[in-house]
Amino acid sequence: MDLPKKSLDDYAPFVGLEEVHEIRTLASYLRGARVQHINSTAVGGGVAELLGTLVPLMRDVGLDARWDVMKGSQAFFEVTKAIHNSLHGAREVLTPEGLKLFWDTTQENLGVLERDADFECIHDPQPLGLVKERGEKARWLWRCHIDLSDADPGTWSFLRQIVERYDGAAFHLPEYAKELSIPQYVAPPAIDPLNEKNTELTQSEITSVLERYQLDPRLPIVMQVSRYDRLKDPVGVIRSYQRAARSHPCQLVLVGGAANDDPEGAQVLAEVQEAAQGDPNIHVLVMAPGTGRDVNALQRAATIVVQKSVREGFGLVVTEAMWKGKPVIGGAVGGIRSQILQGTTGFLVHSVEGTAYRIRQLLGNPDLARQLGANARRYVIENFLPTTYLKRWLLMLLSLRHRPARAVVALGTP
Ligand code: UDP
Q1: Which domains does the chain have, with CATH numbers?
Q2: Ligand 1 atom 6 nearest Cα
């Protein structure tokens, strides 16, 4: 895939030059290593965001890194979405036809493997089966971006026998690690402060984006940004806003787009539009790929950011809002819990009522909102920038090269 160039030096203003030098020294032990990342979508969703920064930075520090995307039919992605949902705790049954499609699609994608790779980094379950063709040379890492703590036992036992053919598996949080016969690494992801989604914007650009999307600049904005997916509970966000808005006038902006590997999006969007009907202060926006700068402007215009997920791998969108100094109200699930420290970097919630309560509290107390936002930004700088993420990747690859013993290795989790 064609990717823009990035330089690690450009991150020195956030983390200091010394950190940049340290990472370059670490990377020198991997100079020239051929690293292939494979996932299932080039746009939409957190994994594509991460790879868009990680791969150019790996190149910048001397690795021969590339990113390829596997291909699959709509029916294949329906099967992998069912796998995804059941790893998040939904009870779905993998049918023999579904499994056949999984393996047939894997077979059709074998050509994507770079035969001379030193490291194969496979992201999430869709391309997992590619390991069936593994040779002796490359070390294989499965990078899982999903919360597996409540995974359906049937689905997990199917995946587990494939995962154990890898040399290692990496998870965002310690509680996602599983009973496995291979080494496991724990490393949370990161956001890129320099990409169009997170870079600083002028007030006039933000204002013009508000005008373009016909939002009222005088009304406080409560916002959720995420794919239209039931696990993100967009309808729950609408109910929470409706309760809060009875006493605190505000507008709700739902910003969403579809990922290519998510076939349920259109149906969930229709449910959301129905729930929003009749309230002119609810704006349901459908963003095209490549509108990251608009998403950035909208996030910056928000008074409060909500991420009321009922399941969440990590929740990069929470990190993005925290980076922008926003007070975030997040569902107390998955990786959101490792970002929001209750009452310090935001608020964790468990229900519509709780979300409405926190919206009212923040709308009524701008000083508290500002303080939470400032703490949140500092927390992101300390834990979730690409420099730290790259360092964790380099450590994982170095460790894999030396065929470590079976263990769980935490690479600086917050
Ligand atoms: N995103 C976007 N446009 C949208 C919806 C989401 O650019 O309309 C981005 C969002 O800013 C974030 C990523 O997609 O960078 C979502 O990552 P997250 O980890 O929050 O959730 P996932 O989609 O991976 O479950």
Answers
A1: 8-190+385-410 (3.40.50.2000), 203-383 (3.40.50.2000)
A2: 226
